[in-house]
What we know:
heterodimer; A: mainly alpha; Rna Polymerase Sigma Factor, Chain: A; Arc Repressor Mutant, subunit A; 2 domains; 8 helices; globular; B: mainly alpha; disordered C terminus
Amino acid sequence: xxxxxxQSSRAARDELWRDWMRAAQDGDNSAYTRLLADxxxxxxxxxxxxxxxxxxxxxIVQDVLLSIHVVRHTYDxxxxxxxxxxxxxxxxxxxxxxxxxxxSANETTVEIMPETSLQDETKSDQDVLDDHGEIQRxxxxxxxxxxxxxxxMKIQGLSLEEASAVTxxxxxxxxxxxxxxxxxxxxxxx
Amino acid sequence: MNGSTERDTxxxxxxxxxxxxxxxxxxxxxxxxxxxxxxxxMFAALVVAAMGLRPDIxxxxxxxxxxxxxxxxxxxxxxxxxxxxxxxxxxxxxxxRFAPLPALGVWLASLGTGCWAAWISTGPEGLRITPDLMxxxxxxxxxxxxxVLILAMIRRGAPIAPITATMLAALAAASLGAAALRLFHxxxxxxxxxxxxxxxxAILTGxxxxxxxxxxxxxxxxxxx
Lengths: 190, 225
């Protein structure tokens, strides 16, 4: 996918990705891990080439990865992997551009944001560190399933639908897990 | 957007990699096209049988123009379905989405030839348009089950071209309805067929295109930026 890459090495890499994806479709977690790790820099480079605002790049890359995960059953191992990956990446970049332009049509740019506090900083660095430690302690008190749900939805900010796609659990099951996990965390923090 | 960092992305890769449950691969678009077309033709045949074949069907089937028109409509339907399935498979060539155009061209050309022949033989009288409001509901009736089936089938694909996919799906169902309509509805003036049959197909195809983006969405579209 890189422009100056020799044809033979591109073909060899595509062959490798094809094999890994075929194995991942059959449920091979290690092949899937290798595939995602290998395509990540390629996806990132593609997004960077097309998207000017560097702050948004990782959001779009994550969108691409989630999309690949959700539609991985649409890959036909009899066909090259590269075009499959580029199509999804290009589509998600276009979707992000559409969302951004739709949002900016409803926004007003202001030069100075209104202040919400008279103090320069609402929290000291020490307070932030203390909070971090407390949250880690509360997370340690959760079961593995609860911790995964909290990390995905409350720390990484995934929606219920996204977290459901990642974990394979139903939306309602996730709601229950998060609710219980929050109760446990609240108890620990008190 | 959320301003995520590379560390967040690495964490996501880890989370995704840990849950690669086996998936059922999507069957080839050609096979899905064959399955859809077979079931849909069977349903259309049932409707035609229920409505009753037009009394002059034997005579009509001896006219090359009638046969070309019906076969072209059926081919449009089948190829549009195949193209709709291809539009849900990332990485496939773009030309596949235009596959129904030749058949559609033949269908329209056969009707155009009919209009021309009517003009030559009877002049402006042969090109009169009168209301025939039953065409639309008949096409919707025959196309209903095929439409539901194809929409359910394209939902299994990736929403990389949602508008194109639902538009082609609607074209597939509606042109099958139009082909079946020729077998039980006695309306042979080419301009009338062009106006009411092809017009109905065009409206339904347009509706298909309009629902595309809301019907076929990425599951993570709920994400708030």
